[in-house]
Write a structure and sequence with these properties.
Chain lengths: 245, 746
């Protein structure tokens, strides 16, 4: 069965380049839908069952989203598609954490830098789909601050479970009720993040922590998930505060 | 700067007690209730007393005539509205007779002299006798005046009426009332022993002034209701003033261990001297009296000096200076009176009258001024300077007249010139001494303000500390404390010994509630804080805040501008370069454009972020290199060490980023290396970078430096460092970069 892919990119040259990357990455025959702006993309998504992809018979499995679009920001679509069961990847020229971090918070599963070489992009894309999302030191640093702010001193916590009752005394602009454990970093994840923020590779981290390579990768995936969940919780709190829900 | 803690450590008692007092003792903010009523009552009482005196004076029988001192020391009729006396204008009065008693041959001393300031005992006894006789004559009704031409006139003494009390009386009655009121206000503001002592001093001096005022307009009239012999009375007033001063300064500003003992000693000495005057037992009574007064004054100065050594309260320093000035003036006045009596007997009474008047007025003006030392410095300072200057001028004038027999006019001119000279020469010094004028010039103040504003902007969390530093330099206080109190604005407390300055600290993690700085003892205890100082401090704090706000606004503006440029560059040029890259005809062109794109991104990132921490940058460099090298199947050996995690400036960050990228590109594309070893380190500000590959490149000295390597040279030079290439053993090239001072330029 063909994998359905949506590529949202306003630059036609870049779009065709990304098509080539996608085709190269997956040996399965894939059906690529191209969109030049947010509206077109939304229309295509609605055809496949709306933003949750529940009613559609054949939802997209992979969505590539550019951030800068003629009729808005790709982040808008990403946050609409929080529950859409597809691998969502941000393709961008922006490699700095200021741009990427919000994208990850909106539920992106990874990011590709458009100026990378073809081979690099293919490899990265395969990695993301396989569940090895990239994590640059800058983003790792941002994640650490994010979870430290939300979680209240995970770095010092020998056991995150014990901290649940006492660890939320620090004030935040948006006060979050006691977060369940699955939205807070475990000490291991914290350690992984700290190493990542210092520029260590996954292989190096594995040997430093004395664990397997894929265990490190699992931690990273889990961090991604928690980031998404925690930012969703944050958004929910914010929404209820503003009377939106 | 750090001299205060040591001092405090030396004197724990000083530390503990003084601060409590600085905050505890404060004037009641409003006059309410019994204080106000009592004050009004006291003022009314004073006015009533004054009115009674005026009434008695205007009704006392006197002669409608003005007299002058003749060449033979006898009164000469100068002017009169009485038609019976007018024919005798210019005649010398030789006899006063009447029903009241034996006739009297009047002397000019009767006109102007006061027994209090008559030096010679015999002369004083005669004067007192003459005054008693005159009193008796006036009490007896009409008088018979005999002039030197033998003519005799019968006149009837009558009351002067309110209009003819004389300007002198009014001019002295006003300050007398003022001093009395100041004494009352000070006492009622804080009814304590020390304010009571001040009130005693003020009361004595008020009476002295009143006494002189009553004496001025009398002419050839009765001394009644004042006693004929005023020496014991007036000397007692002066002695009481001296004793009260000693006692007062034993209590304030520093409380002696046994103030009562010192006070009792002073009071005992004063009482002894007074008793001596009352019994009239000793010869040379005037000398004794003056000596005792001077001794008490000197004693008070001594007590203050000791007090200042114990606790350098600025009030003690200022008061001691004033007291020394008083002492000197009193000494000069006494000397002038004594000299006049010795060498210029004809002028002795004039000199004495003027000298005493000057001295008493000086003292009175100080008494009015001292309680408000820390209120309005400027006005009071000028006033004090003026009072001091006129005192000096008059004293000198009198001294010249009595010593050198100069003409009054010549003497006055000379004295004024000398006094002006002294004033001009010593004005600044005097001002500094008197109130401890701030030594900082406006320019320096501005410079410091500017510097501190810069620092506060960079380290907002050190706001309080930096403000304290600035205030230290402004006022040079002996002590600077932080107290967790809120204060609306800068305020002078504890009679000018301390200044409370509110600190508006930026809310942050270290923010711990309201905070105020307390400065104590300005100019190392040499001067008092005044309201002007408080206002100045308020303005400084305000200016500081404004400067910081302005700086922040400018910085924000610059950041926004940079961000906008970066965004535009990135969005527009970046998108086009990307298209160009995708459309590239051959891989070489594609790489070239990709390279350009990366450079653009580095540039824009450098623009967008102002600072890059070295450790963060190293992590990114490593991750970036790792990714690129992995894609090219090149191994990376990475070693990075630093002894200080400095903030890299935009220039440094982008230069190092590009140097590293360039060198890596070289190894990947030209040298075809399989391994790249990067060793970098920062040690005491010196940055070193070594990039070694195992590629095919050799003989670097023969290379033609194209765009890439030229770029590396340029960047390294930009950092103020140098770069060189050499062969790496059997295979490859090593590039070494050294930057001697990699510190963030400000």
């Amino acid at each position: 069965m063909a994998v359905k892919v949506l590529i949202l990119e306003d630059n036609p040259v870049a779009r065709s380049f990304l098509c080539r990357v996608v085709r190269e990455s997956f040996s399965d025959a894939n059906a690529i839908t191209e969109a030049g702006d947010l509206d077109t993309a939304r229309r295509h998504i609605n055809l496949t069952g709306g933003d949750r992809g529940l009613h559609g018979t054949d939802p997209f499995k992979l969505i590539l989203v550019d951030l800068e679009l003629p009729d808005g920001n790709g982040l808008e679509l990403l946050s609409e598609l929080r529950h859409y069961p597809a691998t969502k990847i941000v393709t961008t020229l922006y490699s700095d954490d200021d741009h990427l971090f919000p994208a990850l918070q909106c539920g992106a599963d990874g990011y590709l830098l458009k100026e990378d070489r073809f081979e690099v992009l293919v490899e990265e894309l395969q990695k993301i789909v396989r569940g090895q999302p990239p994590l640059s030191p800058a983003i790792a640093r941002r994640l650490l601050t994010h979870f430290r702010g939300a979680g209240g001193g995970d770095m010092q916590a020998p056991d995150a479970g014990l901290m649940a009752a006492t660890g939320f005394t620090t004030s935040r602009p948006v006060p979050i009720e006691k977060l369940p454990d699955h939205e807070r970093l475990t000490p291991r994840e914290n350690e992984v993040l700290t190493y990542l923020s210092k520029g260590f590779t996954i292989k190096e981290i594995a040997s430093l922590m004395g664990i397997k390579w894929f265990t490190v990768n699992d931690h990273i995936k889990s961090i991604y998930k928690k980031l998404n969940v925690s930012s969703r919780a944050e958004a929910a709190v914010l929404a209820s505060k503003q009377g939106l829900v | 700067m750090a001299r205060v803690p040591g001092l405090s450590a030396d004197r724990p008692a000083f530390e503990a007690s003084s601060f409590e007092r600085a905050l505890a003792g404060r004037l009641p903010s409003r006059w309410i209730g019994w204080r106000l009523r009592l004050l009004v009552g006291t003022a009314l009482l004073g006015c009533l007393a004054l009115f009674a005196v005026i009434r008695a004076l205007s009704h006392a029988p006197t002669l409608d005539a003005q007299w002058q001192s003749g060449p033979l020391g006898q009164p000469v009729l100068q002017a009169s509205d009485d038609p019976r006396l007018q024919p005798h204008l210019g005649r010398t009065l030789v006899l006063v007779g009447g029903a009241g008693g034996a006739p009297l041959a009047p002397s000019a001393a009767l006109l102007f002299g006061a027994p209090r300031w008559t030096v010679d005992d015999g002369e004083r006894a005669r004067l007192v006798q003459a005054r008693r006789t005159l009193d008796a004559l006036f009490a007896g009704g009409s008088l018979e005046l005999g002039f030197d031409d033998g003519s005799r006139v019968r006149v009837d003494p009558a009351g002067r009426g309110y209009g003819r009390l004389g300007a002198g009386f009014w001019l002295l009655a006003a300050p007398a009332l003022l001093v009395y009121l100041v004494g009352a206000v000070v006492f009622l503001a804080r009814p304590q022993l020390r304010t009571l002592l001040f009130a005693v001093i003020a009361g004595c001096q008020s009476l002295s002034l009143m006494w002189i005022g009553l004496d001025t307009g009398r002419g050839l009239g009765p001394t009644a209701p004042l006693p004929a012999d005023d020496l014991p009375w007036r000397l007692t007033l002066d002695l009481a003033t001296g004793a009260a001063s000693v006692h007062l300064f034993a209590l304030y500003p520093w409380r002696f261990p046994r103030p009562a003992l010192i006070g009792a000693t002073a009071w005992l000495g004063a009482a002894l001297a007074a008793a001596l005057a009352w019994t009239g037992a000793a010869g040379g009574l005037w000398w004794w009296g003056q000596a005792a007064t001077l001794a008490l004054c000197a004693g008070a100065a001594q007590v203050l000096a000791r007090s200042y050594r114990a606790e350098p309260h600025p009030a003690a320093a200022v008061m001691r200076r004033l007291l020394l000035a008083l002492l000197a003036t009193l000494f000069v006045v006494s000397a002038a009176v004594a000299a006049a009596a010795r060498w210029q007997p004809a002028l002795a009474h004039d000199v004495a009258t003027a000298a005493v008047l000057v001295w008493t007025l000086f003292l009175a003006s100080l008494l009015v001024w001292v309680p408000f030392l820390s209120r309005a410095r400027h006005l009071m300072r000028e006033f004090a300077m003026l009072a001091g200057l006129s005192t000096v001028a008059t004293s000198l004038d009198l001294l010249f007249i009595s010593l050198f027999s100069l003409e009054p006019f010549a003497s006055l001119t000379l004295a004024v010139f000398v006094a002006l000279g002294i004033y001009a020469a010593a004005r600044q010094w005097l001002l500094n001494q008197l109130s401890g004028n701030t030594v900082l010039t406006t320019e320096r103040t501005f410079e410091q303000l500017y510097r501190v504003a810069r620092e506060v902007q960079q380290h907002p969390e050190r706001d309080a500390e930096l403000l304290g530093q600035l205030l230290r330099e402004l006022f040079d206080p002996l002590e600077l404390l932080r107290v967790p109190r809120a204060a609306g604005q800068a305020r002078v407390v504890a009679d000018g010994s301390a200044l409370i300055v509110p600190v508006h600290e930026a809310p942050g993690p270290g923010h711990a509630g309201p905070l105020s700085l307390v400065l104590r003892f300005a100019r190392r205890g040499q001067r008092l804080f005044t309201r002007d100082d408080a206002r100045l401090t308020d303005r400084v704090v305000e200016q500081l805040r404004r400067a910081v706000a302005y700086d922040q606004a400018v910085e924000r503006g610059r950041t926004e501008e940079r961000l906008r440029i970066a965004q535009d560059l990135h969005d527009d040029i970046g998108a086009r370069l990307l298209t160009l890259m995708y459309k590239a005809q051959d891989p070489e062109m594609e790489d070239y454009v990709r390279h350009t794109l990366k450079d653009l991104k580095t540039l824009t990132r450098g623009l967008a972020a102002t600072e890059h921490r070295l450790s963060h940058s190293a992590a990114e460099w490593k991750a970036d290199l790792q990714q690129r090298l992995t894609a090219a199947h090149v191994d990376l050996g990475w070693s990075f060490s630093f002894d200080e995690d400095i903030e890299l400036g935009v220039v440094q960050w982008s230069a190092l980023t590009r140097v590293l990228r360039e060198l890596a590109s070289n190894a990947i594309y030209h040298a075809q290396a399989t391994r790249l070893d990067v060793t970098a380190g920062l040690e005491r500000g010196a940055f070193s970078l070594q990039v070694a590959d195992d590629g095919i490149g050799r003989a670097p000295q023969d290379w033609a430096h194209g765009l890439g390597l030229g770029g590396v040279r340029k960047r390294v030079k930009q950092l103020g460092g140098e770069v060189r290439w050499r062969e790496n053993g059997a295979r490859g090239i090593v590039c070494e970069v050294r930057v001697p001072h990699l510190t963030a330029p400000r």
